[in-house]
Amino acid sequence: EFAMMTWPEVKAAIAAGKTTALVYTGGTEQRGPQNVNGGHTLMGTEIVKTIAARLGNAIWLPVLPYTPNNASADLPGTIGLTPEILGLILERISEQAIATGFKNVVIMGDHGGGQPQTYAEVAKKLEAKYAPQGKHVFFCDEVYAKAQNDFDDWLVAHGYPRSSHAGIPDTSTMLYLGGDKGWVRK
Known about the structure:
Blueprint: H1 7-15, E1 20-25, H2 39-55, E2 58-60, H3 83-100, E3 104-109, H4 115-130, E4 136-139, H5 144-157, H6 168-178
Parallel strand pairs: 1-2, 1-3, 3-4
Helix pairs in contact: 2-6, 3-4
């Protein structure tokens, strides 16, 4: 966890082979009447922590709590960025990770909106720039949307309705990861 390391610890970890930085976005948005607004960021933190541990060569950077979305007075709880602003932020964070010494940067997130275009465009642009130096930037699109689709397929196969925003998959994940932490209002 990059934020809980000192600079000598980061330097030593990179020298020891932890050369992949995980850039993960969460999000702040209304999640129905039952789930806290920071659900994407809370779930994303637990997910990226697990991904880093399983990879073994990765350090996860602080989860970004804002993604493409728009606030609403009817359903207050959302604070969002435009895809353009998020793209600039992802680009800057990725380049800072490379400047820190990481050889690989993987951009991924827990929020569906904007990922296929914004994240992929940033990764493609930076990959073209840094690949000749042996440094790489990737967009991993197999985290949030894939997990949501797999869960929806399971629901349908077992006679439950396909879910929607803040539905069964998100609420189940939030109950599993943070049920005792107040992430879901029962």
